[in-house]
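Many introductory courses stop at the sequence. We go one step further.
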Amino acid sequence: MHTPDFDVVVVGLGAMGAATLYQLAKRGVRVAGIDRFAPPHDLGSSHGDTRITRQAVGEGAAYVPLAIRSQQIWRELEAELDVQLFEQCGVLVMTASTDPQRPAEARDFTDNSIELARRYGIEHQELDAAEIRRRFPQFAPLDDSARGYFEPGGGFVRPERCIDAQLTRARQLGATLITGQTVLELDAQDDGVHIISDGSRLFARQVIVSAGMWSAQLLGAPFDSLLQVCRQQLYWFRLDEPERYPARSPSFILHSADDVDACYGFPPIPGEGSVKIATEQYSASSQPGSLDRQPSSADAQ
């Protein structure tokens, strides 16, 4: 029987992989992480300067305990490494307008967030349109029927700093980091898994794949038909009226009444003079090897 090099190998060291590597190392597991690049980098889904964090995750109750724990971890890492990871400026979730004909039992994303906050005892405030306008003048154009949920404990994290911090702590705790190597094949045997890359061959009792957009091609069937890569476009809008954004403006999520259209954004980062706003799309897919990362003139429209 071949003796494993590691108990676990983590393939991909972005947001999920870095967190996994750190937590395993913290538990004393013999663990290695491998990545085709040198995280943090700008070629995956975890780059940039801001990502929203909140505890009442309207997408589903299963995420709430994870979100609550993640904010504790950010504070622990900040104390250990003397680095700023979590900006607690609050998160404002809004429904832009409410259909007067909607059934009483109907719930949208804002309702889901409120219900989860109540269930888990998360500090929050429920706002009507007038209160949103008074406290957050940047959203003054909202319809009179708009509704809001404000979570003061939310805000945004710095994703690249978070990855770097977790990889740093993982290394300090004994984890092995292998960068600049692409995993080509995972060969599962009865006693473990061979991880074959273009620079080495490892053997581990278990492997955890967190390869992001490269997961489908690495894992093969059935994942190559279940997973797709969707390019997301982000936009920065120059502030012509910066006074509309008071100090400690929150991150925000804005939904339409039917939850079909949505956007999210962040408060102005000091020195940028702009706000970052984005939507999500899952209709047009791409391939990681041929993904066009340059914004086009059509994107600017």
